Amino acid sequence: MPAADEVHQLSTRKDATGDLFRLIAEKGHYAGRTKPTSTRQGIYAAAPSGAFLASINSRNPRAVEKMLREALANWEAMPESERFADHQDLGGQSWSRLYPEDGMVLQIFSRDLPGKEASGDWRDLAWNQDFAWFRRGEVLSFIPESRKLGERIEVDPKLVRRLSSLHLVDNVRGQVPPFNDRDVREAELTATITAIGNNTLTLRLKGKTRAEASGVWSVNGHRDTPKDHHRGVACDLLGEAVFNTDKERFTSFELVALGERWGGAKYNARADDLGRGPIGYLLTLSRSDARVAPASIWRYGW
Amino acid sequence: MLRRILAGMVCGVIAGESVASEPPLTQSPTPDALSLDTLDAWVNLLRLDEQELCFLDIAWRDTFAQGVEEAYRVRKPVLLWAMNGHPLGCT
Question: Which helix (H) or strand (E) is A8 found in, with range?
Fold first, then answer.
């Protein structure tokens, strides 16, 4: 049964889910590890009881294949009594409880764009993604009140600042801390009604964002000493969206953000590329069934 | 990259097949400057393609707890992909 989850929450939560994960992880590839970090990220195979089968943290396809075959062999050899324990309800709290059922979920894809010397490895095709959640009231802030052709509205600045600080970040090669709200220097987005159908409004979206931060941090994982750094992302935004006035929902939403990123953070793998480089994002309606929370959901203030 | 590797690994091993190697690395050329005329081209460039989304061919449960609950029901082992940052989101 394949499952994906966020490892820091699993490692630290104080409930049956956390206990079960730690039971497995402390027999795995990072068991007992505290340096350079105490992360337990990786791929684990286990019986539902928590009986360990195999694990690995590797990008090497052959190594992962070997681990999976080992896990299957161990499963086959494991007595039924070890596979299943007395079942307990794992349950527990998760950010998915905040999923905006009647709002909007955007999927945000980020990529580097050509313009710098190719690395010749995974970095040339790196991409990442995130989800952005909007409550119903926030969705409606994209819609001009009069709903007349040519009418324009400034999208709630709080939402645009949230996009800039939490979502338009340089996560292409790996995780990066969000910007603070005070780091946002520009954040504007207008929505203009460009067409009206029987039950639809077509909107043109246009704007720009800029966030930058300075401070002392590492840019190469645990391999460099923290020192003064500066990082930022500046984008022009352009897009189109279709809003269904019967359902009061967007049925199409495509917003492109193009611009520059510069600097690096501890884990976003920019140590070799701290200068300015082109970056692009697509914000589009999520086609995923996953109720995976935005990476910085705790900053939403919901 | 791990997303793509893992999708190929899991599908291949479960099917009893040998596993394909990684695809070649090539970047697509970019359209002209962003404008209403080039918007569709930029959307297409930035949208993930099927190959990039192949890791979703696996029916990942969103949480470890959900995976364990279902594993009990179908009497199967659990394969957990646990990363700093949710693997199905930003990792």
Answer: helix A7-12
Rounded CA-CA distance A162/A166 in Å is 6
Report ipTM (2 d.p.). 0.90
Q: Of the candidates A214, A82, A204, which has an alpha carbon nearest to the alpha carbon of residue A151? A: A204
Closest CA to A203 of A150, A164, A159, A156: A150
User: Residues A177-213, buried b or exposed e (16+ Cβ, 10 A)?
Assistant: bbbeeebbeebebbbebeeeeeebbbbbbbbbbbbeb
Secondary structure class of A94 (helix, strand, coil): coil
Q: Rounded to two decimals, what is the model's pTM? A: 0.90
CA distance A135 to A120: 42
Residue B65, H or E segment: helix B64-74
Give the number of other Cβ atoms within 10 Å of residue A287's Cβ: 9
Q: Which residue of A has its CA nearest to B5?
A: A61
Please name the residue of chain B whose CA is at the shortest distance from the CA of residue A175. Answer: B91
Model confidence pLDDT, tens digit, residues A246-285? 999 999 999 999 999 999 999 999 999 999 999 999 999 9
Contact across the interface for A6 and B86, Cβ inside 8 Å: yes
Please tell me the distance from the alpha carbon of residue A295 to that of residue A267, in angstroms, as a whole number. 14
Amino acid, res. A202? T
Q: Spell out the domain ranges in chain A.
A: 7-83, 100-299
Q: H or E stretch including A112? A: strand A104-112
Q: Helices A16-25 and B64-74: crossing angle, nearest 10°?
A: 80
- Give the separation between CA B15 and CA A225, rounded to whole angstroms: 46
Q: Are B15 and B26 in contact (CB under 8 A)?
A: no
Q: Residue A18 and residue A129: Cα distance in Å, rounded?
A: 26
Q: Contact, A58 vs A65, CB < 8 A? A: no
Model pLDDT for residues A287-297, shown as the tens digit of each residue: 888 899 999 99
- Chain B segment 5-44 residues within 8 A of A by beta carbon are 5-6, 8-10, 12-13, 19, 21-22, 25-27, 29-30, 34-36, 39, 42-43
Distance CA B11, CA A55 (A): 17
- Sheet of B78-83: strand order equals A2-6, B78-83, A42-46, A52-56
For chain B, report the end-to-end CA distance as a whole number of angstroms.
11
